[in-house]
Amino acid sequence: MKLLIINGPNLNLLGKREPDVYGNMSFEVFFESLKEKFQNIELAYYQSNLEGDIINKLHEVGFTYDGIVLNAAAYTHTSVAIGDAVKAINTPVIEIHISNVHARESYRHSSFIAKNAKGVISGFGLQSYILGIQSFLL
Ligand code: DQA
User: Fold this and answer.
1) Is 5 within 8 Å of 45 (Cβ atoms)?
2) In this structure, are residues 5 and 57 in contact, taking their beta carbons and an 8 Å threshold?
3) What whole-number percentage of the chain has pLDDT above 90?
4) What is the DSSP string of the chain?
5) What is the C-alpha separation between 68 and 64, in angstroms, rounded?
6) Phi and psi (nearest 5°) for 9?
7) Which in 38, 65, 129, 131 has the greatest CB count within 10 A?
8) For 136, which DSSP code?
9) 74 Cβ inside 6 Å of ligand 1
10) If you average pLDDT over residues 27-41, what whole number do you get?
11) Closest CA to 132 of 91, 71, 87
């Protein structure tokens, strides 16, 4: 099984950015533990701060990979184009968030991705990624 984790803007700063909200572990370190934990899965990771790059990556893998775990970060709440890209591809996408977006500012309560996602996971810290991966094993 081939899965790709895509992280959107500012998530390259995980570990340094608002640790009270996002924790203090970098994604690179966390990703190593994911590869350890899911040795039977071919796991790949991509991060970009640019909307178009995320769309290009969805197009690139969205007809061959078995699943995508997508944390589009702030683009979740703003990007019609990423929502359209998720709809356009065949690979199922799980939308995930580290924080519970529904417990935060109201502008974080809406998502252009959720409607076209297989499911949404929000609020479990970095474990949200683990739950996202596990959802493809059900
Ligand atoms: C986030 C939540 C978003 O609202 C925010 O813009 C992020 C991260 C999360 O993982 O909790 O950058 O997607």
Assistant:
1) yes
2) no
3) 100
4) -EEEEEE-TTGGGTTTS-HHHH-S--HHHHHHHHHHHTTTSEEEEEE-S-HHHHHHHHHHHTTT-SEEEEE-GGGGGT-HHHHHHHHHSSS-EEEEESS-GGGS-GGGS--SSGGGSSEEEESSTTHHHHHHHHHTT-
5) 11
6) -60, 140
7) 129
8) T
9) yes
10) 98
11) 71
Between the CA of 97 and the centroid of ligand 1 the distance, in Å, is 6
Sequence letter at residue 138: L
CA of 37 to the centre of ligand 1 (A): 24
Question: Which pLDDT does position 76 carry in this prediction?
Answer: 98
Ligand 1 atom with minimal separation from the 122 CA? 11
Both tokens assigned to 53: 């790059």
Per-residue confidence band for 42, with pLDDT thresholds at 50, 70 and 90:
very high
Cα 83 versus chain centre, distance: 13
Q: Please provide residue 61's backbone torsions phi and psi, each rounded to the nearest 5 degrees.
A: -105, -10
